[in-house]
């Protein structure tokens, strides 16, 4: 197996790991953090929150490795965009995921202290918990935008290089634009989460394609 074939396989596996980890993090922690009584629920479901944070970290690191693995190939076609993809889809995305992990762990600490403190000091912990939860939401919005910009760079590079079929690259470009739109809409309190679906599906198709077929 030549080096490019190995790279294609590794990138495909990283896409799958990142996507599955992201979905599982929501499965484990999403319903707890969105519960109206989350300050009680988080403490009562400590292990689920910790697993959720580890999955977010795994997602961030796996997806951040995609542009790093692709950089030696992409730079032959457009070095500036290849470097941009490493910055946005690699470094920035990993840092934002780490920030989200920290916010979740801080919410867990506040929840534990809230349960210990009881009614007299409850309002202080409720205020702090609300701030941390809102910070987590804002971090997620920023992640959506950074992820989308990095995806646009990656799929333009795929389109330019013809390493994968152009229909798959165009699907990725359209999906990234819709994903970016969903992130911008939610900042104005308009939820169009369904716009994330095309890119999520495309990346799974791309992952299987890279594992089975490799690069053109």
Structure description:
The protein has 216 residues and is an all-alpha fold. It has one domain. Helices cover 85% and strands 0% of the residues. The chain contains seven helices and no strands. The longest helix is centred in the middle third of the chain and has 40 residues, at 122-161. The chain is elongated and about 60 Å long. The model has no long low-confidence stretch (mean pLDDT 91).
Q: What letter string, H or E per element, gives the SSE order?
A: HHHHHHH
Structural class: mainly alpha
How far apart the termini lie comes to 14 Å
Number of strands: 0
Q: Label the overall shape.
A: elongated
Low-pLDDT residue spans: none
Proportion of strand residues: under 5%
Work out the radius of gyration.
19 Å
Name the average pLDDT: 91
Helical run tally: 7
Count structural domains: 1
Biggest β-sheet: count, sense, barrel? Answer: none
């Amino acid at each position: 197996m030549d080096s490019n074939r190995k790279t294609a396989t590794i990138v495909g596996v990283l896409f799958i790991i990142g996507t599955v980890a992201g979905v599982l993090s929501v499965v484990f922690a999403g319903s707890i953090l969105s519960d109206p009584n989350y300050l009680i629920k988080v403490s009562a479901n400590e292990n689920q929150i910790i697993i959720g944070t580890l999955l977010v970290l795994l997602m961030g690191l796996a997806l951040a490795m995609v542009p790093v693995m692709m950089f030696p190939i992409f730079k032959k076609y457009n070095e500036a965009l290849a470097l941009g993809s490493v910055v946005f889809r690699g470094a920035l995305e990993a840092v934002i995921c780490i920030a989200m992990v920290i916010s979740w762990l801080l919410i867990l600490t506040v929840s534990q202290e809230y349960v210990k403190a009881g009614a007299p000091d409850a309002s202080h912990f409720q205020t702090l918990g609300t701030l941390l939860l809102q910070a987590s939401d804002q971090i997620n919005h920023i992640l959506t935008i950074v992820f989308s910009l990095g995806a646009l760079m990656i799929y333009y590079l795929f389109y330019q290089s013809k390493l994968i079929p152009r229909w798959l690259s165009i699907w990725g470009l359209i999906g990234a634009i819709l994903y970016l739109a969903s992130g911008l809409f939610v900042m104005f309190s308009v939820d169009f989460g369904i716009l994330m679906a095309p890119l999520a599906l495309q990346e799974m198709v791309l992952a299987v394609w890279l594992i089975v077929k490799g690069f053109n």
